[in-house]
Input
Amino acid sequence: MMKKRLFSWAALILAVTHFFGQSLPVDPAVKIGTLSNGMKYYIRKNTTPEKKVDFRLAINVGSILEDENQKGLAHFMEHMNFNGTKNFPDNKLIDFLQSIGIKFGQHINASTGFDRTVYMLPVPLNNPENLDIGLKVMEDWAFNATLSDEQINKERGVVLEEIRNKLGAGKRMEDKYLPKLLYNSHYLKRNIGGGNESITNFKPEALRKFKEEWYRPDLMALIVVGDINVDEVEKKIKDNFSKYKNPPNPRERKIFSLPNHKETLVAIETDPDATSSTVHFVIKDSEPYKPDATVEQYDQSIIENLSMIMLNHRLSELINSNDPPFISGSVYYGDNYVKDKKAFQGGAQTKDGNQLVALKALLEEVERAKRFGFTQQELDDAKANMLSGAEITYNNRDKIESDAWVGEYVNNFLEQEPIPGIIWGYENVKSFIPKITLTQTNEVIGKMMKDENRVIILTGPEKANTKKITESEVLETINAVKLANLKPYEKNGAIKNLVKPFVSEGKIVKTENDVKLGTTTWTLSNGAKVTFKKTNFKDDEIVFNAVSLGGTSLISDEDYLKTQFAFPGLLQAGLNGLSINDLNNYGAGRNASASFYVNELSEGISGNSSKKDLDLAMEFIYAIFTGMNFDEKAFNAYKEKAITASANYESNPQYYFFNEHLKFLNQKNPRFTNAKASKKDWENVDYKKLYSIFKAKFANAGNFHFYFVGNIEENELRKEVLQYIASLPSTGKTATFKDDGYRQVVGDYTKVYKKGKDPKSLVTITYTTLAPYIEKDVLALSALGEIASIKMTEKLREDESGIYSGEAKGYAGKVPFSYYKFYFNFPCGPENAEKLTKSAIAEIQKLIDNGPEQKDLDKYKEGEYNDYDTGLKNNSVWLNELTRNQLEGSDKYDILNYRDQVKALTVKDLQGVAKKYLTKGRIIAMLMPEDGWEKAGK
Output
């Protein structure tokens, strides 16, 4: 996590020089103003995506401002803005927004923190009136919540369910270590959720008072970015928002600070349900955070970012070693829970009982950098990476999505983060980065690594056979690092090439053009096919996928059990004699990546690149096919990390439920073991068998179809294809997947699984039918799932206040066999599980008996049109559709015909699939707490 994001840099301005330095510019592409009442606005025209506008309402208010009788009400207020406003009474807002294609949760949402509240609303502009509707919603959210007693009391149950959802080992341990992290601060007296007692018992007048005092113009900013007329939007904002007044005697918006402390504070927390062991260090700044205001300050942030890049690169080399001290880890300088202080922070996940080893290794790498600094090669690589990232952003500057811009402006308003823009930022980074010296970067760690304001947090599972670490052992480890006999870091020399130069004799033997899809397909002399589609969705992006049919379906049951989870670990050995760390160094300063996969029905290679680095992506592709290293030690290191990560999965009640239910469903399938590989599964892996299967699958390029989508230069692609893909080995044979014949259990069952002490349940209702694949039925069942989600939300959340969220989904599989599946799941209180299950089944029965209401089908259609229009301008969407057609043999023009297919759906179609696929084979599964949860949950 970096302090700056590259896309926030930019745009020309006239420099203004002050006695304290050159002021940072503000991107002239955004219009910023302040109304007479103090409300701020940001407006920007942006046509990615077209005919869309993104709204944000940012309020400089959060739970830190609550009075004693208002705990949790900042978050509760956020909920109430969806439950009744002046122009959208009761629950009419969600209903109306869905009618114009905005999906609740996916599109429309809000969030509350200690110091901020942000409302999010993306609006399609296929109807010009939608702009005014969006502004009206933002106006209501800002000032016009009705806050009736009835709606407040109904919403209590929903908020309590949201609080319930967060219960678990992580929350219990967090509650214990926060007093150290937020030492002696007012933040400890406030909880964003508020807690059960407060939410159950607060008086409605307390919420109204919170709204009246804090939802006021001088604490708000309205942000509007999209395919709009800026002057028109500004006039509408002035006309509609200027009339609102601040309270006569507004309360001061205080900024609460984190007090400094000289001593190191240590928190060591364990929990029986914890799924991993972690270590964290946090070194908080002594002074309150001040955002960059001058070019000099901004450039210093660049130096800090380079130091973090170099330090994280060293940690990644440790992680990729054959004897890693932890399985994942990183450091960063940035946010620390609250508004007032930034912090230098680091963390790692490690084996149970190995936390002190991990803490020592993490701190030693920081200490090594502090003592000896970085090397020139490290700095050169980090500079190249930062410049390369800035160049990609600059090249795509006219295709940045609106939601990225609104995020920048929210942070500018709430945190005063600079917004100079992409053009200025790119010019600045190009001129400044070459001037940065090792002396400058070497100073960074020394300034950040201090003894005061330091907090060490260890979390992990509570086990009888694991010795509990003491605070004194942690402090001894820290002191030992200071005295450790460390050596300077040594970096391997630069690598000249991954693939040695060679002359390719490959040719294109056939060219086919598809005018409707805008694709060209080459058949190569080795039998491989290459399909590419040139787009202008991004000016500098190419995505690719290579697909061969077969996958693990062609492996025997015995070999499958020895290899099923382990294929990704092969790449840990590196390529063409180079280690994984060598490969990371080789790609420094260039934008290209590729990785391989072996799935149930296919194998392949996927990745992306910039235009100029397509050659590097091709080298990766060629090396994966021809140069996978054989290194059992490297693979075993990967395996040990995987075993560590999976050691405590079943301690988590939700995972236990998911895994045990899958075991029940797959009881007739000898290939199924666990949802995620267990220690026993990993110990069964045969590396030699794994490697030989991989080599066999990638020995025949003639069975692969390569797809490239993006801003492709045909001549450049042809050159690279002839060099690297047409020269790949081929056997001349073709292969496809097979059906292994195993099926999940179908029928009528009710299964109850018990795990955990928290008063939390999870219910899943599933209907499965084995039947011939019918395209129209598949779409109708998918639509039914979306509509069922709407109805379940209305019934179980709004009417019964029994859930916070739930999901219904209908889908079908075509290969290797045809089936239809429809499910609904929701978390809830154990005491309500049976009642809500009956309610959910009753709602499904209504769909069977009567079909959906036309208005709900219309909501689904508008939402699909909205997503479809955006997806048509996305490279990855096109790539996925092209590869899906190869796998499923579906109509390749589905992507062009989808809108018409959705439009043709009728209520009768949806009722038909409900009768056809939801009237038999229902499996109800419930997760319930273990016995005694009633007492434990109090």
